[in-house]
Amino acid sequence: MTGEDETVTATPDGHKPLSHSPKSAKKRDAILRAATEIINVKGYALATMTEIAAALDLRDAALYYYFPNKQALVFACHQSSLERFERVLSETNQDGGAGFERLERFLRALLVESARNGPLLYFGDRSYLDEDQRDAIAACSEHLTRRLERIIQDGMADGSITPCESSLVVQLLLGMLIWLAKWVPTVEGVTVDRLMAAIGMVGLQGLRNDAPQA
Amino acid sequence: MTGEDETVTATPDGHKPLSHSPKSAKKRDAILRAATEIINVKGYALATMTEIAAALDLRDAALYYYFPNKQALVFACHQSSLERFERVLSETNQDGGAGFERLERFLRALLVESARNGPLLYFGDRSYLDEDQRDAIAACSEHLTRRLERIIQDGMADGSITPCESSLVVQLLLGMLIWLAKWVPTVEGVTVDRLMAAIGMVGLQGLRNDAPQA
DNA sequence: CAGATATTCTAGAGCAAGTTAGAAATTTTA
DNA sequence: TAAAATTTCTAACTTGCTCTAGAATATCTG
Predict the structure, then answer these.
(1) Which residues of chain B between 62 and 101 are close to nucleic strand D, CB under 7 A?
(2) What is the rounded distance in angstroms from the CA atom of residue A111 to the CA atom of residue A47?
(3) Residue B55 pLDDT > 50, yes or no?
(4) B136-152 mean pLDDT
(5) What are the φ and ψ backbone dihedral angles of B183, each rounded to 5 degrees?
(6) Who is most buried in A21, A116, A178, A209, counting CB within 10 A?
(7) Considering only CB atoms, which chain A residues are within 8 Å of B165?
(8) CA atoms within 13 A on the CB side of A106
(9) Model confidence over A21-38: pLDDT tens digits?
(10) From its phi and psi, is residue B122 left (phi > 0), alpha (psi between -120 and 50) or beta?
(11) Contact, A43 vs B125, CB < 8 A?
């Protein structure tokens, strides 16, 4: 009803993305991935078009063949990350189980997904976007946050999670993930298993209500 | 030996900070506090001199009376935050106790300090600084990280903390704090006690080795 | 291979933000 | 209150980055 049918393959605006060859979409994704990684580390403004392009052996101007401007590029990064987040959340949620198990599965699945397809774009500040874009992302991102809170509340209801303020706990968990996205690329030899072990220690065991310790 | 005596009250370089009236230092700190808050939210580049100045009802040019340039201003923010972090860490460490208790005391004390004197400047990326500045901050920040790791290792040794990879755990805890510095200013009514309760749940109980649950 | 289409490049315009110089305004001191 | 010192402002300069226009190269198709 709000006129948001962005399920079409490409943006049907009056913009630049001229045609849509088969390869074009792949390169577009590659740009998003490179941009996301750089933006996660340096932030929006310091992640220059030149640097993003250089990561793919291109000149800055080439990016404007795929995106009308930097804003749109980064907005697409946000969208892509939210979709990936959503997909992982839905998948791990539909397998059922107690709240604690669903939360644990989700965190692991998100780490695996990120290790495979590159980090998600996590960012609190979006002042560089248009108000429409900001609103769209805020709505989507709050929706996802609520779904996570719901999982924790489910866990409290089914007894698998210790009573707590679900909204705060979700933010703390997100904080760990956000920082990981910035931090992991800078170190070597960190595996999903080791990360998950640490998260299980720091971010999960405290929430567990069943067995005291492993 | 490396020529780093920055313990002097003011930078004795050939720079701008002309004289040093009693009030001057206070305003300098106020600038650092405002800048830290804005930078934490928007990042280095998007935190314009104009916006930082506006937070104190000033024009951008007025900032150059206190700092030679933006780089120096933000470097001072980093220094100030590292000093505050260090002070809190030392204070909570010298009171003794098991590793777990020291860690818990530290986190709470840091939250209290931040609530009182404004957030700390947490940032992974420092590409906007000179190499010297970057190195200085990296050295100091790694030193602090190691001290935190040490606390966790002590806790594992004295039995108060469950065996884990201390370096990863420290990063996860820092991730929570970093995100809090960005996130807390955007919400209302969040108290230190509630935050600490959530952190105790998410970030500490899982590490505890003594009593299973509260 | 030739023509068409898709992709990237070079060169430069325009703009936003950092910075500077010197003039005003404020505060301090005598 | 007057002179000196401190603090802030206005206005303009400079730089780096986004973005555009059009040419050049690569890729695809018959």
Answers:
(1) 62, 64-66
(2) 24
(3) yes
(4) 96
(5) -90, -45
(6) A178
(7) 194, 197-198
(8) 29
(9) 667 889 999 999 999 999
(10) beta
(11) yes
Q: Which amino acid belongs to residue A149? A: E
Q: How far is CA A20 from CA A26, A27, A79, A191, B154, in A?
A: 10, 11, 19, 37, 59
Average of pLDDT values for A77-92? 97
User: From the centroid of its chain, how far is CA B96?
Assistant: 22
Query: Which of A45, A175, A182 comes nearest B46 by C-beta?
Result: A45
pLDDT at residue A139 above 60? yes
- In whole angstroms, give the CA distance from residue A10 to residue A77: 14
- Cα separation, B101 vs B112, whole angstroms: 16
Whether B65 sits with its Cβ under 7 A from any strand C atom: the answer reads no
Q: B64: Cβ under 7 Å from strand C?
A: yes
| CB A127 under 7 Å to nucleic chain C | no
Enumerate the residues of chain B whose CB falls inside 8 A of the CB of residue A182.
Answer: 124-125
- In terms of average pLDDT, the best of A129-138, A202-211, B151-160 is A129-138
Closest residue (Cα, C1') to D17: A48
Say how many C-beta atoms besides its own lie within 10 A of residue B14's C-beta.
6
Cα–Cα nearest to B15, from B75, B60, B59? B75
Residue A147: is its pLDDT beyond 50?
Answer: yes
**Chain centre distance of CA B8:** 21
DSSP letter for A118, please.
-
Closest CA-bearing residue to C1' of D11: B61
Place of tokens 């987040």: A85
pTM: 0.87
**Two tokens at A59?**
């000149």
Does B128 contact strand D, using a CB cutoff of 7 Å?
no
pLDDT the model gives residue A14: 32
pLDDT value of residue B187: 87
Report residue B74 as tokens.
């933000």
By the 8 A CB rule, do B34 and B119 touch?
no
Q: What are phi and psi of A161, to 5 degrees?
A: -125, 135
